[in-house]
Amino acid sequence: PGRLLDLEHQNAVKLDQVEILVLDEADRMLDMGFIHDIRRVLTKLPAKRQNLLFSATFSDDIKALAEKLLHNPLEIEVARRNTASDQVTQHVHFVDKKRKRELLSHMIGKGNWQQVLVFTRTKHGANHLAEQLNKDGIRSAAIHGNKSQGARTRALADFKSGDIRVLVATDIAARGLDIEELPHVVNYELPNVPEDYVHRIGRTGRAAATGEALSLVCVDEHKLLRDIEKLLKKEIPRIAIPGYEPDPSIKAEPIQNGRQQRGGGGRGQGGGRGQQQPRRGEGGAKSASAKPAEKPSRRLGDAKPVGEQQRRRRPRKPAAAQ
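-> structure tokens emitted (322 positions)
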């Protein structure tokens, strides 16, 4: 929506004669903070128009958005709300974070899997995992928002044709993927939003076909797993793989949650720039009132510090003279 507003500002498009408004991937746009841009677009549209809203998940936030934007809408659901298909077998494998890639390669090789869709949280993570799998002799490719459309199209075509066995994707890049009879989906990293888990595993088990969804869960992700199971209203079966049992001495560490911090520069969480982005995104709030305010008090506001030093020095002069 922001790009559309830019084009409208440049008089490249006119919105005052739009007859049909389509909000696709509404849950993703809401999650990424596009609601304000959407509202700005709405103010530029004719009051009388047809509105369509599409969403892979239908959370309470999406319902509230629909009630605000749509008038007497007809609701059509192709699946029950926030539920996984009964055709998909779900399993959880607990494993240490540093051994996830090793376990994934082991499962692909042992099971002779020929077509596997793997999900990561970040673009950097997708690239890194695809590189590591290729080093393991498993032909893989990554797709995400930083890849060109041509690169994504080629990767998907190679995946469908069998030229590559593993497609590593982020949640956004996987939206709209249509892969017939995909047998395996792997959550290499659990999503930060429980509803995204339902959407991920929905890539398999389509059209009465069966599928398998596996999640590699480290100690850092136990809370994410509990949130997913709370949404599903059931516990996902656990399967221990001999030789890959997690080390009980390893303590959980906070997960850098890029999506929840997106407004403050969450994009950098996966790319190593998370320290810089929040300062730019929150400069009007925290950085202006906290850190810069402390520095002037030391450098510019010298009246009190100097006075204090002078008061301390005055008694010392007689002492020195004696």
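The chain is about 40% helix and 10% strand.
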